[in-house]
Specification:
The protein is mainly α. It has helices at 2-19, 76-85, 94-107, 109-112, 121-124, 143-152, 166-184, 192-215. Helices cover 47% and strands 0% of the residues.
Length: 217
């Protein structure tokens, strides 16, 4: 009799467990808090957070994904340090120059002008005044100062650290230096090893074309 009762209890338990499963519907959740996290409204007030505020500052020392620390401060001293010592880490290639131009046309040309002469659309419409040309002898911009200004902004120009990533800012720096060189009538910088590689590739291409031509004669 006792064995029969045990068998019946086990059978009922198994049937109860199996009956909870139905392929056409989600299974029962015995601990729903383990499956579904509680959603909080942005900037809502909840007692579970310090200060009852859902929107909290990141933990001290944390670094956003894809962001690199910038060691120059947003000050006159930081600007001068960047101007004197900060160098562009990317290679000066035609590909980076073209990428810089595309970004410049999006973010910079509206004020600084397509040629870098300070005569952008907003300046011509007198919405913004006092935008200097890149060849202004009173400024003598460098790759470091260009990057620093894009990172922090200056005067009426805001920061572009959010709209662009580090590589994109350096590509813009290369293109701004190209515009500056054009305005000053100087040779545009393309790194010597890149130029040499282009010459080798061109020579190799010409040799292949000559071999191909000779094969048809």
């Amino acid at each position: 009799m006792k064995n029969s009762i045990n068998i019946i209890v086990v059978a009922i338990t198994i049937i109860s467990v199996v009956s909870c499963k139905k392929d056409s519907k989600p299974n029962y959740q015995y601990m729903p808090d383990m499956y579904e996290s509680v959603g909080y409204e942005p900037y809502g007030e909840y007692g579970v957070f310090p200060g009852s505020q859902e929107a909290m500052l990141p933990a001290e020392g944390s670094i956003p994904r894809g962001w690199m620390p910038y060691d120059y401060k947003n000050s006159n001293e930081g600007y001068q340090q960047a101007k004197d010592s900060l160098k562009n880490p990317i290679r000066y290639t035609k590909a980076n120059e073209e990428a810089g131009k595309a970004l410049y046309d999006i973010y910079c040309a509206i004020c600084h002008g397509g040629q870098g002469d300070g005569k952008g659309t907003l300046v011509k419409r007198e919405k913004i005044l006092g935008v200097p040309s890149y060849d202004d002898p009173g400024r003598i911009i460098t790759e470091g100062s260009i990057y620093h200004v894009m990172y922090y902004g200056i005067n009426t120009m805001g920061s572009y650290a959010v709209q662009t990533n580090e590589e994109e800012r350096w590509q813009i720096v290369q293109y701004v230096q190209k515009l500056k060189a054009d305005l000053e009538g100087k040779t545009v910088r393309i790194d010597s090893d890149v130029v040499e590689a282009i010459k080798i590739e061109e020579a190799h291409h010409e040799a292949k074309e000559e071999d191909h031509s000779n094969a048809h004669h």
